[in-house]
Amino acid sequence: MIAEHGVVSSVLLRMNAAWPLSAAARELASAGVPVFPCSPWGKRPATGHGFHDATTNLDQIEAWWRQSPGANIGVPTGAASGAVVVDVDMHGPVDGRASFDRAARAGLVEGWELLVRTPTGGMHAYYPVTPGTEQRSWQAARAGIDFRGDGGYIIVPPSAPAPHREPHPRVWIGMST
């Protein structure tokens, strides 16, 4: 099952930090977005096959979050979810915001549906997939930009950051009009 265009963004816009993680996972799955559990306060998949285990099966999702209520929510990117994400990193000396700003001035980042602040102060820019085109994940580490497409995944709100390392919650900060 492939999620419809824009569904990830539209579901995330209905949520806030007060949503229980299990309810948020069920809401995404009910809308056709496959999910999988990741370690509490982290990004590491909590299943044997990571994003390959993502599902919309509500019974499986209930079982996962009953076993680990604090599990963060992973969503595979690309065709499976209908969303690809530009991940703007902020790690030490790397500030991907400058690279994203240069790309924006050049007209290269138009078309995003949702912007989400990440725990390190960076952001995820959500875009719809391009139907019929494989969009593989890639990194430009020195520029502080990653692209999460087919073969990748993201952690979505209201997943919790590690309180001792990451000062910002995952919250949406902008939406397209």
TrEMBL record:
Signal peptide: none annotated. It holds the Pfam family Prim-Pol. Residues 25-173 form the DNA primase/polymerase bifunctional N-terminal domain. It comes from the Bacteria. This is DNA primase/polymerase bifunctional N-terminal domain-containing protein.
